[in-house]
Amino acid sequence: MVYNEAIRLLKTLPRFGNFVGLKRMEALMIALGNPQNQLRFVHVTGTNGKGSICAFASSILQAAGHRVGLFTSPHLFSWTERFQINGECISEADFVLYFERVMAAANNLAEQNPVMAPTTFDVLTAMAYLYFFDHSVDIAVIEVGIGGRYDSTNILPNSVAVISNIGLEHTELLGNTITAIAEQKVGIIKPNSQVVTGETNPEALQVINKCVRQQHAHLKNIVSTDIVKQKISDDQQIFTWQNYTDVNIPFLARYESYNAAIVMATVQAVQQQYNLNIAEENIRHGLAKTKWPLRFEVVHTAPRIILDAGHNIHGMLALKDELKHLPKSGNWILITGASIDKPYKKMALIITPFMDTIIVTAASHKAAPPQEIAKILQQQGMACKVLSLRESLIQAKNIAQPNDTIFVLGGLYLVAEAAELVPEIFI
Prior knowledge:
Number of helices: 15
Oligomer: single chain
CATH class of the largest domain: Alpha Beta
Largest sheet: 8 strands, mixed
Strand content: 15-25%
Mean pLDDT: 94
Low-confidence stretches: none
């Protein structure tokens, strides 16, 4: 089998299983020898910030000399991005190898009982655990897919649990209240484990604290007021948290300092739970060298172009806060779209009032109709155009002055496609 064939077959698998629960995943991992039972984990859930937290944590652990697995989703450009060891993506050949191994076990289970047929994410998660075990990682950083309690990743015997924050998301699967969603997120907390959260909502904290007590776990709660921001530029920010002064991270967005503080607390938790050696200089170096693209990232200057993959209400509100604090020189030009499975009608109105020019577009995959988004904006008295993504970028280039800012906002698929077009158009 070649890589493209593996991807084609992967895409034919169902997105959701025949029942809610982990029995299907547990059976699959038993068939594969339960490699996850031999590993250490940082398990990360939350509505927003999961990816940044995973990237920060992986970078710090690598800086400390550890061999680190990283499993995240979705990917930007290639399925191989989801599986990394010390910053290196799995090769296409190894992707095929582990896909075939997992599918052989999965097909055998499905033949015995069709309801045990795996989902796409079941297979990807099993591949990650097997790959990390075979390559002898010291610790693996795992991003939850959806929720936590019944997520395919949640078959770990032990882990440091991180809950970034909790907002209304995937309500058709997780519930339509903060309490219901929090109940799903806290499902990753294991007995006698270390837990870190940046959540501040009293309703969500009540659920987290209750679960921590029930599991006899140990909680670290990060408060944003403990973070003192000192300097922010297009390519870095410096802040202080607790005894860590002048911490440097290579990101513009103010919320990334909050994510970094969560990770610094997570590193303390890892040291306590697994007795891994991680020095302060490792933490500083790892944070400063973290790479996590398309998160309020400046990819071009004169005009400045900022790409951000915020994809839900919670993410749009975080973007709104960034825009409030971002110094403005020149006009702001927005290129935006959304995924069809998001509340795009509400999302469209959150950031558009800050903009001088608005262009509505669509990604090539899972896109909400741009005409519908434009209609909503026009009903609110905002002028906008509907163009293809390429046409949108060309239009923005033609009207932008050197001191203007072009924002491309609206989900991973749209922003990833824009990232590939920008070097071609803005030459």
